[in-house]
Amino acid sequence: MCGGSGTRLWPASRPSRPKQFIPLAGNRSPFQETVERVIDLTGSKGRLIVIGGAAHRQTIVEQLDDIGREAVILLEPEARDSAAAMAAAALWTQERNPDAVNLFVASDHHIPDDEAFRETVRVASEAASKGRIVTFGIVPSAPSSAYGYIAPRGAGLSEIQAFVEKPDLATAERHIADGYLWNSGNFVVRADVLSDELRETTPGLIEAVSDALNASMIDGPAVLLGRRFVDAPKISIDYAVMEKTLRASVLPVTYEWSDLGAWDAVHKSGEGDVGLHLFEDAENCLVRACDGVMVAAIGVSNLGIVVERDAVLVTDLARSQDVRTVVKRLATLSPRHLDFAPQPREDLRTGAVRFAAWMRQAALPAWCTLGQNSEGGFEELLTLDGRRLNASRRSSVQARQIQVYAQAGHLNWPGPWKAAVDHGLAWTNSRLVNDDGLLRARLTAAGAVEDGDASIYDQAFLMFALAQVSSIAPYTEREEQARCVRDHLLTHAAHGEGFRENGPHPYQSNAHMHLLEAALAWEEAGGDAGWSTLADRIVKLASSRFFDRDAGMMREFFSTDWSPADGLDGSLIEPGHQFEWAWLLARYARARSNAAVMDVAWRLFEGGLKGVDPRREVAIDAMDLSGDIRSARARLWPQTEWLKAALVLASLPDDGRRAFCLTQAARAQRALWRYLTPAGLWRDKMLENGDFIDEPSPASSFYHIMGAFAQVQTSLCMLNPELGSALALS
Predict the structure, then answer these.
(1) Among 230, 256, 453, 701, which residue has the least CB neighbours within 10 Å?
(2) Which residues are bridge partners to 274 per DSSP?
(3) What is the helix, strand, coil percentage profile of the chain, to 5?
């Protein structure tokens, strides 16, 4: 449990970086130490569950990754105290294993003897499996007013007589004499027992948390609980259950324990000093200095000196509890020092306005001048300093660039979009179209046929480009050209429910995805009924064959009967394609009011988020159906598909998920900006260390970028109409 802000450990602990995530007694944070302490208790069938605030998602993911551990991460949209947090974990557990026992531990405790802790858990688990709710009572080492107390009814594992709030020192001494124990706040309980107790003692809590779990969104390695979570009563587990239940037991434990709640406790751990410091006749002092700061102390004792980049605390260690008084005063005197200044992150609106300017002033001008030759053919590559390179010309790239500039015209770009489209079409039709009307695959740089095959993939982009051209000016011959290509594929390339592609992977989902894109574009351009029929056919195949309902993801490759391919081919998952399919299926479902297909679109969006690297904040190239990374490289195009999917889903009637989708769109747009250059060019491949491969900009990416921009403009102007002029290409 990762709640709490560690107020008494200011200025090191603050809401954005609370104490559980700061190394306080060693090189690892208390959270990481806790994970290592409990991980062996999961055995072969158990799971580690982390529940914390949505604001700490990145920190939780990174700190787990640092120690090589995985967990189910439940994120609270708002803190509702320990009862609601524990209920979420218990309900999640109960759904998967009705008889499972949960160990609930705070993530900020210091327990040096891990094995002693695990042994007490094993003892407590036996009682918990029989229906008891067991908490650990720490045998006090000295009177303390910093902890609550538990009065046991007997020795050993026993029922609880009473819970006692934090007393003054005199009362604490009497409690210790009477055999009271410190309340550790850790529990062992069967998941169904806890949920039953909460349902009986705290009306509305289980219902709200259950609804929140049912409406949760999967955000990569984390699960963001739905908005109903904030309706759960804000109450601690002690008040909600432990003081009312007849099932409560306490197990006395003698291992060393501290909640590291104040600077004196950190000092007592013997490992609290951090940073550069110099003592001259100073003793029994704690020093924590941020990077680059030297602390010198002369002739003092029993002081805590804590230096952060914006605040310094000097306290008598004996008065460490009084730090919270200072924090309360800061709320009035200097609120900005209550938390660290947030790192600037471009918001969705600001990034979108910048995106429009980049498209208008840099990218579109560059690729119809430097990126298109005098005969009308589009270049495959431009170096990052804007020079052309001789390279083979793929037909799919020519079609994509025609579509880009046709869409630019549709969006009222005042540049020479029409000349780019007309010259590009003329060049493509004269050099790349066969006698049967299909595109051949590729020409050499000199213009000779290099690959004469006509793939479904290439024909899909031709039909898509022609649809975009027809949407800005009704060209009867363009519609007829596209219809002939479609009907040829239906006659000659159909295979069972789908289509057979050329090449080493004839039964694949990717070619069908682009056929669907073309079919939907022709629907919107006013094409004949055959386009809707084609779209229906592909969506039916995708939903029934390509989509793995257990994993919530689209597979890539298949056998002749459209069952998953054998081996690694059959388990390959591309996060970018999950987003791209989600974007297409959401549009299809919205047009037809098809709730079942819309549900698939949502699940694919969540599946794509599993492929977002939490450190680099980019969508990676490939993983397995199990979620294991197959390629951590991250190309540009998956970032655009992440952005498109997030925005089309955000454009739906708000069912509580719009804010989540807009947050994802902002993340995706920031990811995309890492690839774009001021000159209207882009980098294509990011390595695992965050560096980019030094290579020319591929023209093929522009289609993805234009699609992302068009969705940004459409969605944001729908949600915020006054943005129209700021996002215009004119």
Answers:
(1) 453
(2) 288
(3) 45, 20, 35
> C-alpha angle with apex 464: 460 to 466, nearest 5 degrees?
120
> DSSP string of 150-196?
EEESSSSSEEEEEEE----HHHHHHHHHTT-EEEEEEEEEEHHHHHH
CA distance 552 to 565: 17
Give yes or no for residue 474 having a pLDDT over 80.
no
Q: What is the pLDDT of residue 341?
A: 80
Residue 463 near residue 516, CB atoms below 8 Å: no
Looking at residue 477, what is its pLDDT? Answer: 85
**Per-residue pLDDT reduced to its tens digit, 238-295:** 999 998 999 999 999 999 999 898 999 999 998 889 999 999 999 999 999 999 999 9
C-alpha dihedral (699, 700, 706, 708), degrees to nearest 10: -130
User: Could you say which DSSP state residue 502 is in?
Assistant: S
Residue 483 contacts residue 526 (beta carbons within 8 Å): no
Q: How far is CA 405 from CA 211, 419, 560, 569, in A?
A: 46, 9, 38, 35
Distance, in Å, from the CA atom of 457 to the CA atom of 583, rounded to the nearest integer, reads 18
What's the pLDDT tens digit per position in 91-130? 999 999 999 999 999 999 999 999 999 999 999 999 999 9
> What token pair was written down for 150?
């538990």
CA pair distance 380, 394, nearest whole angstrom: 8
Taking alpha carbons only, the member of 494, 608, 516, 622 closest to residue 562 is 494
